[in-house]
Design brief:
Length: 250
C-alpha cells in the first residue's frame, strides 16, 4: 500500500465516522455525549487524508530533485536500488471498519446480548431516591425502576403507576422479560438491566420487540439464570408495541 492508497483509505474512514456521527447511527455504538468527540476525530482523519493526497500529488517544480525522506528513499517510493518501496499490506485491513460503517451497520445490542449476559445493577451510593416525575403514569427508565424496586424495596415508588420502555427478551422458564442495555462508554461494555413481568404480560411478541408498559411496583424478586443476580418484577397493567427509539440504550 503506497501513501496515496493510505490517504484514500484514511479519507474513507474519516468520512464513515463523520457520516455515523452526523446521523443517529453512532448511537448504536457509543453514548450520546460522545458525538462531539467523534465529529472532531472524523474531521481530523479527513484533513490528514487531504493533506497527504495534496503532498503526494502536487506537481514537482522543473529541475527539482525528488523529495528525500532522510534515509535514502525518494518521494516516488524508490528505495535507492531501483525497486519500489511499499508499506505492509496489512494496512488494507483499515478498509474493514469503513465497510462495516457504510455497508453493514450492525444493529444496537438487543435480546441476544441480554440473554447471554447477566443483569447488571450496581447499588446506589445514596439511600434516598428523588421523587418520581410528575404525571400519571410517571415515565421512568428501566434502570431507574429496577434500582428503586431492588435497593429501595419500592418505598420511593409507592403505589404510583410507572411507564417504561424496553425490548422483549427471554428470561427464566422461557418467560418474556423487559430489558434495556446500559452503556458506560460504548457498546463493548454494554450490560443489560432486566425486569421480570407479572400481570398483563406481553405475549406473542418475538424477541427484540419494543414495548411501552404501564404498571406498578411488585415485591416479587427473581433470579437471573446467567449470573444468579436478583431481578425485580413489575406488575403490568397494560402494554403496547412501539417502534425502536432513536437511542436504544439507557
Amino acid at each position: 500500500m503506497n501513501r496515496q492508497a493510505q490517504a484514500v483509505v484514511l479519507l474513507l474512514l474519516g468520512g464513515a465516522v463523520l457520516r455515523a456521527s452526523i446521523t443517529d447511527l453512532y448511537l448504536r455504538y457509543v453514548k450520546e455525549g460522545l458525538r462531539p468527540f467523534l465529529i472532531a476525530a472524523g474531521l481530523l482523519l479527513v484533513v490528514a487524508a487531504i493533506m497527504t493526497l495534496w503532498y503526494e500529488l502536487r506537481p514537482t517544480r522543473p529541475g527539482a530533485p525528488a523529495h528525500d525522506d532522510g534515509v535514502g528513499h525518494g518521494h516516488d517510493g524508490d528505495d535507492g536500488s531501483g525497486h519500489d518501496h511499499h508499506e505492509p499490506r496489512v494496512g488494507w485491513l483499515l478498509i474493514l471498519p469503513v465497510l462495516g460503517l457504510l455497508l453493514v451497520a450492525p444493529p444496537a445490542l438487543g435480546s441476544y446480548a441480554a440473554e447471554q449476559t447477566g443483569t447488571t445493577l450496581s447499588a446506589p451510593r445514596q439511600s434516598d431516591y428523588p421523587p418520581l416525575p410528575d404525571g400519571d403514569p410517571a415515565r421512568v427508565t428501566v434502570l431507574d425502576y429496577a434500582a428503586r424496586a431492588l435497593f429501595d424495596r419500592g418505598v420511593s415508588l409507592g403505589d404510583r403507576r410507572v411507564l417504561l420502555t424496553g425490548f422483549i427478551a427471554t428470561g427464566a422458564d422461557n418467560e418474556p422479560i423487559l430489558a434495556r442495555m446500559v452503556l458506560s462508554c460504548c457498546a463493548a461494555d454494554g450490560r443489560p438491566v432486566k425486569l421480570g413481568l407479572t400481570g398483563d404480560v406481553p405475549a406473542g411478541l418475538p424477541n427484540d420487540s419494543w414495548v411501552e408498559v404501564i404498571g406498578r411496583y411488585s415485591d416479587r424478586i427473581g433470579r437471573d439464570p446467567v449470573n444468579e443476580a436478583e431481578i425485580p418484577y413489575l406488575e403490568v397493567e397494560s402494554w403496547r408495541q412501539v417502534p425502536a427509539p432513536k437511542n436504544q440504550y439507557d
